[in-house]
Structure prediction request, 630 residues.
Amino acid sequence: MSELTVSQALTRPGRRTMEAAPLRVLIWRRFLRHRLAVVAMAVLGLVIASAVFAPLSRYTPTQQNPTNALQPPSPQHWFGTDDLGRDVFTRTLYGGRISLAVGLSATLLSLLIGVVVGMVAGYFGGVVDNVLMRITDGFLTLPTLFVLILIATLLREIPALGLVSGVIIVILVIAVLSWMWPARIVRGEFLRLKQRDFVTAAESIGAGHGRIMARHILPNTVSLIIVQGTLMVAYAIITESGLSYLGFGVQPPTPSWGNLLATAQTYALRAPWLMIFPGLMIFLTSMAINYIGDGLRDAFDPYSAR
Amino acid sequence: MRTYFLKRVLHAIPLLFVLSVVLFLVVRSAPGGPLAQAERNPNITAEQRQQLRERLGLDQPLYKQYLDWLGAVLQGDLGRSIKSNRPVAEVIGERIPNTLLLVGVAFVLTIAIAIPLGAISALRQYSWFDYLVTTLSFAGQSMPVYWLGLVAILIFYVWLDNPFTGGPLLPAGGMYTLGAPRTLADLIWHMILPVGVLCATWVAWYSRFFRASMLETLNADYVRTATAKGLPRGRVIYGHAGRNAVIPLVTMIALDLPSVFAGTLFVETIFSWPGMGRLFWEAARGRDYPVLMAIIMINAVLIVLANLIADMLYARLDPRVRYE
Prediction:
């Protein structure tokens, strides 16, 4: 797909020749025309940068100072301090590291499972498709959050897993309970695309199933996978924070946006700033990701009006 | 069509069966299984423990235990809660009406708000109203429901006061004021925040969905035909475009049921609403596996049923749909 150029299409005799541009550059240009998506990109960049550069903060996320507990926002502590006198700004930045990492890894894992399942189901069809889609439907009828909590509760009981403080558990369970959407999308695309001439052509020169799936059909579904993946990052971040908020996700003292909110609720009366900032970060990040997803969808769609 | 639905039901059964096997194994393998209390209690001798095992059937082979359990579940006996030692069916039974009340009211309100919003948005595509609805809908979708709940408590309970009594404007949780007589007005007063929070997130999704659905029908050939033959615009919009746009909503609602349950779990937890969601949260904290399992099983059955009903309704509403 990346080798495709549109120079022929854009060059017409008697007109000024437009520079030949690879498709990805065209998509990028179209994306830049979606103003809100560009703003969202900047916001997300800022959020990511704040998480990456969190260690530059004056405080550490676990440094306690009981004499300085529950202080409102001030020049020293931009987001105030929590019940143990820890700096909420620093904890929010470090929480972002966990939340973003969980969101990204859960999405990648979920896409990996979903794409493979969808690919195999759509390409081979028949019994394989039937069995895989039954399983997918089965997972779709699960009350996801309830199952997430049950698994998280159970896994926590295994002492050997204590060290990972729930982060890996949360990534795994989110992925295992969300791969069905990409699987369905990819399957649909494979069902459609495997009828195309280029697949027949590849078959006729002796390409194997694996090669046809991975090199010929899969690249044509990349745009859909990227859009779906983007939106899933927001979903995963919100799910992680929800689990951690309820006490079944990332465990304190490791801060995540969700478990910061859990402690905040106790002090809603005395220290409302505790709940404002971590929540705002979740909101901003997920909103930015949703707008980027929207922008990407338009940019990938050759018929979009923008 | 009858055979189609029969087939669907037959497909659903193995699904629920597999789920029940997995959940059964979970409960059996979980620390804090059926004997946990007896094992922690020093007053119970090893002999009594053995008797208890026999009485509970734990000395039987696993498949036999499962079949016994399944037989009991099919007769409505979901086992006993580890925490309260009461029958699970009874514990859950008390909570279900409260959840239904909350979800029911929130749902009716959501539909009543989301459909007009989505319709106007679609009719005036790219107007300021459309942009406003779209932005709000994006915001609603990006906002975690529990954070919205926390902020709502902060604003309406902590910050705003009732000008007449000087107390908080709205209660932070519960179903009735403690110690006060249980009146309808008190119930409604307690419902405003949880219902409002659920509605806000649901309206965000449904208005967006209905807008897309409506845009599709507005551009359909039959709408053009209706306009061309001179029907008044109102009739075209309500009778032709609107009615057809509602149809996909049916499927959407059925598919969406898992997230509806998730929403109630958060809202009931935050607002201490004594429903199934909060019961689940309490049970998970107390590792009350029989209760956890029963709630998951009930929800799974409800989701399967909802999907089935949605498909049947779909066939009724849209005569073009034919199931084989």
In short: The interface with chain A takes residues 11, 15, 18-19, 26, 30-32, 138-139, 141-147, 150-151, 153-154, 158, 255, 258-259, 261-262, 265-266, 269-270, 280-281, 284-285, 287, 292-293, 295-296, 299-300, 303-304, 307 of chain B (CB under 8 Å). Residues 88-123 of chain B form the longest helix (36 residues).
